[in-house]
Specification:
This protein is an all-alpha fold. The protein has one domain (17-135). The protein is built from 5 helices and no strands. It has helices at 2-14, 17-43, 49-72, 79-107, 112-135. The relative contact order is 0.12.
């Protein structure tokens, strides 16, 4: 009985694409922030933060693609085509990061982690509309 009640309560949430996007976005945001922060912490004395940002981008975009494809938009097939379109959508916030980080860190003297948090907020907004209308075309 409890399992049926839980299933009945969770089904509407699971069937809601915007809610699935928010849950996935929470995971992707946490994963991306933590992975970039960890890479920066481990490698910043050896590698410039822009290189770390690029490396982190590949990891984080791949993680986000998998989550969006299978949990949010639930599309079938077209793996390479969607993955490449996914990179097109993320090229905008990624390019913004290559401009935003040097300006924030070197000119405005904002802490790397704070700059990363600000850019994350912008990325969330861009990514929903981009993935909805370009990556997965639903």
């Amino acid at each position: 009985m409890e399992k049926k009640l839980i299933t009945a309560l969770l089904r509407p949430a699971y069937n809601s694409k915007p809610l699935r996007f928010l849950v996935t976005g929470g995971w992707n945001t946490a994963f991306s922030y933590i992975s970039l922060a960890l890479l920066y912490y481990l490698l910043s004395d050896k590698i410039h933060y822009i290189i770390i940002l690029a490396f982190s981008g590949v990891i984080n975009i791949s993680n986000a693609y998998i989550c969006h494809k299978f949990f949010v938009f639930k599309t079938k097939g077209n793996y390479l085509k969607e993955y490449l379109r996914y990179y097109v959508v993320y090229s905008v916030p990624l390019a913004m990061g290559f401009i935003f980080f040097p300006v924030s860190i070197e000119i405005l003297k904002i802490n790397f982690y704070a700059a990363q948090a600000l850019l994350t907020l912008i990325t969330v907004i861009i990514s929903y509309f981009g993935h909805k209308h370009i990556s997965f075309r639903v």
